[in-house]
Amino acid sequence: MIQLQEFLFGKNIESAIVNNEDEINFLAQYVVQKIIELKVQDLNSLNNQQAFAYKFGSVYIDTCNDIEFQFKNKSKHNYLMYKQRIEIVIAKKLRKIAKKNQYSMYQQLLSPLKQKYQKIDITLSKKKNIILLNEEYQETYAKFIQNIYQLQPKSMNWVLIKFEEQLKKKLIYQTIEIQKAITQKKYYKPIVKYYVETFLINQKFQMLNKNYVVQLIQFAYKLNKSKFQDVQLGFQKFIIELSSIQYLQLNQDDINQIFNQKDKYFFENFSAKQTMELIIELFLLLSGFKYNNQSLDIEKYQPSSHAFLLKFCQEINDGKWEFTNCCILKLADKVLGKIHYQIVQQLNEKSTNIVVLKIQNKQQQFELFRKNPQALANFKSQNQAYYFSSLYQNNDKQQKIDVILNDKFSQFMNNIVQQKPQDLKQYAKPEMFYLQSLSEGKLRSNVITIFVNGFITQSDQKVASLWPFNKDSYLETLVLGWTASSVSSLAKYAGIAAMFSTTVVGIAIQPIFLAVTCVTIKQFYDAYKEAKIVGKYLAYFLNQNYLGTKSINLVGFSLGTVIVYYCLKQLIKLQKQEKYQIIHNVLMMGGVADKDLLSKLDYRCISGTFHNVYSEQDGVLGYALPLYNNAINPCGKYQIDINLGLNSVESMYPNVKNHNFTQKVSGHRKYEGEIIQEILKLTNFDDQYLIF
Question: Which regions span the lipid bilayer (predicted)?
Answer without folding.
Answer: none
